[in-house]
Amino acid sequence: MIAATALLAGGTLRREDGASAAPSSRQLARLGFRELDAARRTGEPSHYTRSEQALRRALDANTNDAEALIGLASLANSRHHFREGLALARRVQGLSPDTALVYGVIGDSLIELGRYDEAFRNFERFGAVKPGLSAYSRISYARELLGYTDGAIAAMQLAVDSAGDGGEPSAWARTQLGKLYFSQGRPVEAARQYRLALASYPEYVHALDALAHVEAARGRFARAIHLERRAVQQTPLPQFVGALGDLYRSSGRPAAARAQYRLVGVLDRLFVANGVATDLELSLFNVDHGVRLRESLERARRAQIERPSIEADDVLAWALARNGQCGQGLRFSTRALRLGTRDAPKFFHRGMIERCLGHELEAKRWFRRALRTNPNFSLVWAPVAREALS
Amino acid sequence: MKQATAIAAFLGVIALAALAAVTALGPEDGTASSHREAPLISEDPTADLTDVYAFRSPDKPNTVTILANVIPGEDPAAGPNYYTFSPNARYNLKIDTDGDVQPNLIYRFQFGRKTGQFFLGDTAQPYTVSRVQRGRTSVVAKGTTPPNNIGPRSTPNYRSLVTKSILSFDGGRSQAFAGQRDDPFFGDIGAIFDLVAIRKGTGNMGGGKDFFANYAVHGIALQVPISQLDDSDHTVGVWATTERPQMKIRSYRKNGIRRFQHEREWVQVSRLGNPLINEVIIPTKLKDRWNRLSPATDAQFVQYYRQPILAAVINQLYGLGVPEQNRDDLVAVLLTGVPGLNNTGSKLADMLRINLSIAPTTMPNRLGVFGGDLAGFPNGRRLGDDVVDIAERAVAGKLKGHPAGDLLGDGVDGNDVPNLNVFPYENIPPSGFDNAKGQQKP
């Protein structure tokens, strides 16, 4: 009432003491979200740690802050702790069932846990209550997993149109659309989308990296290296650095390649230090590059138990095959292909397993399928498939 | 060297320690791509309504003008200025003429985009305006938006570009426009989001910072004869919505062709009638729900009007003792209309209500009805109505005679650029070339 009296006397309105000094749970939750988005956009993993700090402080201020909990669920997913992400997102669903995004986050967790029917139901619910870039892009991914390539492209086009032009979300959606084209052996359309992304959002690292893959597919290694270096200079993500290594290797510069491969290991540790589980990613990189095969198999096994998605099934199948355990590999390859996904590397891995089991005709059928889907699916392995067929 | 520098900056201190440890581990160890992550921020700028205005046109008082804006905070100088309306959304202006809180008339704007190699830099968009009335939809006008205001070299004579793109229909009695405009909203949002802070005095003494100065929006505009809307009680309700097509995952087959169901079912993703309702009244966990419902179902939200969160916040921060309970005064202003001014009956619905029998004033008062000017908010809303101050004072109990109801405000009393005195009234958007943001008010 003192303040009110002062007010009536024409004095300055002042806050009551104390309560106002600390930021609110809502402000902290928003900060957590911004850090999370920065992590996604820039790839710098220290944003994860900063995001977690802000979100935890928001929960300290209000244990049931739905926004902070969605942030934490999403953060858990970003760090590949999908069971934790699911549990948190389900908690938000109980507290705030009308918040559309929660169905997207639940679906994200379920996808990576291999629970596809449930995941798709959640994505559809998201798309039914709040259609827009976030929902359309997830539906596109679901269709891609199911092998409905045209439908996946149509959905991602809708995501692009929803984003409006300009800004990172629009560039992200265009890059995803381009990657869909590329994965189906349509590099010209892919490159067009990457260029549009770069025109509206200059030097966008994900588009630079993706365009490097197109240039490499065309055999233009100098251009590809230039693009990939521009991506790496801004944001040295492990996958960019690994791709740069592959480009050096394919253009006959093994020493430069090894330098990049070494960096990948360093960067991986940085992600691990910021709470990201990288067993699956590390295993695939090592198996692809023929190093630490036995250790990588163990990693792949652990990852497949932690996150039994078709991606993990496929990496485990590939790791088993590279360790000579092709019978078991076949089992996981079958699991990896169970949705009907049209993904050239998965077809190729199956071909290698079949060949290892002495099924020559079957193997050739899978190699042809891989190359028909995307003749440029890998700098390292597409030539192997071609050689097997010649 | 550049790469090494970037990496060093990126890694920071932790990584330098890791680097030392790692050299011993040998070559060829690392990770490939992680799982894909869609943008988390679910905001949808091209469908996000920022403001709706409805007023009798000052220069043509026998017409009413309705404006709705989307895409908050377009920064003309932050990289390429490529903001556009979404080509897969429907932008609706809805009008209830008879007080049953259902739309009797809908004007719908739908946009395309130019195709061809250089479409990205070309922000002029073809569009149609349709009218939905008694269950029938007919196209009433077709046109093209002006391009965005890039600067004097890319888009010279911007004003004339706009004038040329205004559409006339119904035999010249009505007009429509769509395109990039100056954001006419003004307010110290930076301070408001900082716990309703007030920079100077009690807020009625200026000194605020207009966070909307030099930002643009995309606006749709309509001007129709009052005779088309007016009925016996003269009051109509106005609100805007945006819709996007629902999308399912699984396909179905028709005539042997695989099809995906996504074009037919439209889902409302944003709505706006009175200003600041979704920001100030509706709790966070119900915002998505509120946005997809029609005003006719607003009775379910009445408790948040009767006991507004903002009143409690103001008391907590400033100890003003403003009424926190039984705020039927706010229910009247925002959900039924003010008796004797623009009441539409007992049905609770968030619509911007305007009594069309009240003539426009030549010297508008920014506080509208609170300032004794019946031609302003909450009787419709003009571009110059200071809805932030009005909202703060209304919540502080102006209508209940509480003294704080005359004193609160954000210290920003008007738009940073003059609004136009002709259709579409919102000024031309700031160009990237002339950009100068964040004006400090005297």
Tell me, briefly, the overall form of chain A: globular
* Poorly predicted segments of chain B: 5-35
Roughly how much helix do the residues of chain A carry, as a percent range? over 70%
- Average pLDDT confidence of chain A is 91
Q: Radius of gyration of chain A in whole Å, from Cα?
A: 23 Å
- Name of the CATH first level of the domain at 22-130 in chain A: Mainly Alpha
Summarize the structure in words.
The complex is a heterodimer of chains A (390) and B (442). Chain A contains 22 helices and no strands. Chain A is globular, with a radius of gyration of 23 Å. The relative contact order of chain A is 0.06. Chain B has one domain. Chain B is 18% helix and 23% strand. In chain B, strand 3 and strand 4 form a beta hairpin. With 442 residues, chain B is of the alpha+beta class. Classes of the chains: A mainly alpha (390), B alpha+beta (442). At the A-B interface, helix 1, helix 2, helix 4, helix 6 and helix 7 of A face helix 1, helix 6 and helix 8 of B.
Q: How would you briefly describe this protein structure?
A:
Chain A is mainly alpha-helical. Chain A has helices at 2-8, 25-42, 46-61, 66-78, 82-95, 101-112, 116-129, 133-145, 149-163, 168-183, 187-200, 205-217, 221-234, 238-250, 254-273, 279-288, 293-306, 310-322, 326-336, 344-356, 360-373, 382-389.
